[in-house]
Known about the structure:
Elements: E1 3-5, E2 12-14, E3 17-19, H1 29-41, E4 46-48, H2 57-69, E5 76-82, H3 107-121, E6 126-132, H4 140-152, E7 156-162, H5 166-179, E8 184-188, H6 202-209, E9 212-215, H7 239-243, H8 245-249, H9 253-268, H10 273-282, E10 287-292, H11 297-303, H12 313-322
Parallel strand pairs: 3-4, 3-10, 4-5, 5-6, 6-7, 7-8, 8-9, 9-10
Antiparallel strand pairs: 1-2
Helix pairs in contact: 1-2, 2-3, 3-4, 9-12
Amino acid sequence: MEYRPLGRTGVQVSSLCLGTDNFADPTPEDEAARILNMALDAGINVVDTGDVYADGEGEKIIGRAIKANGRRHQTIIATKVDHGRRRPGYSVDDPALFAPNDHGHSRLNIIRACENSLKRLQTDYIDLYQIHRPSPDIPWEEQLGALTDLVRQGKVRYIGCSTHAPWTVMDAIMVSELKGYARFVSEQPPYNLLDRRIENELVPLCQKHGLGLITWAPMAMGVLAGRYKSATEYPDGSRAALRGGFYADRVTQRGVEVGAEFTKIAQGLNLTPAQLSILWVKDQPGIAAPLIGPRTVEQLESLIPVKDMKLDDETRAACDALVPPGSVVADFHNTADWMKMQVTWGQSS
């Protein structure tokens, strides 16, 4: 396993990291624990989760699994504090479960969410605590002040953000430098061959200012793995079928067409399209590691060999011909209000 520095910290992270959004939704706990242990055995040392994953059950599964295997010291636990509208026990749609202070990255919610995550994970500290989606109406001074207190209390080792605009990341860095607050060490955006927009601003910003990029959705939710044959018919067990909504909106006809051509490239290399999609992200400039989110043990087994592969220039050029650098054919930022489409649907450039 190759290990890479996480931004400008001294932390080394594996070139593949384990995403756990499938834990408990739909992966049952016994199989989730096997996936986690297999990942650690393969040298993966980052396990990423969030307080909204399966309404908190994802963190509980990870906590029980790591307590059982006794490998806490080997595991970099990364979790997230959501902006609150989907946090466990809260709902803006149900008056009985909603109150004015139950959303947003206020000091109140950040500290409360951290304490709850620590309990669910059965740990004294979180290695990487990330702000999940922006809260633009709450000043960075409040958000970073609360996170800094958690770091000073030893409850959090490092802080990062997820799916933030480049200018908000820069704002946060500036406030940290001016006020002496803890500084973001990472950003976690969506990134795959179908949505390359982070290459335009976010990747250069993170390279210049020393933030590690741990990216999600490298297989484009299975579109690049050849799971979808059309933009309107979803295979059983796919996220578009199981969850609908913004997951289904990410499946576009042009994306499906690119996925079919991408499959041909993978076959020519004797790789599965899933393997090639992970490899492509892993070896892109500025990327610390992609998150792989297997639903089954078998899926993880098929992806682990990617850790020893290298993306050659000819394959990189063939992928660039499908979707040019910086462009987009399927919107994986569709939960981020700040990101707008920069090309016309149906075009590859």
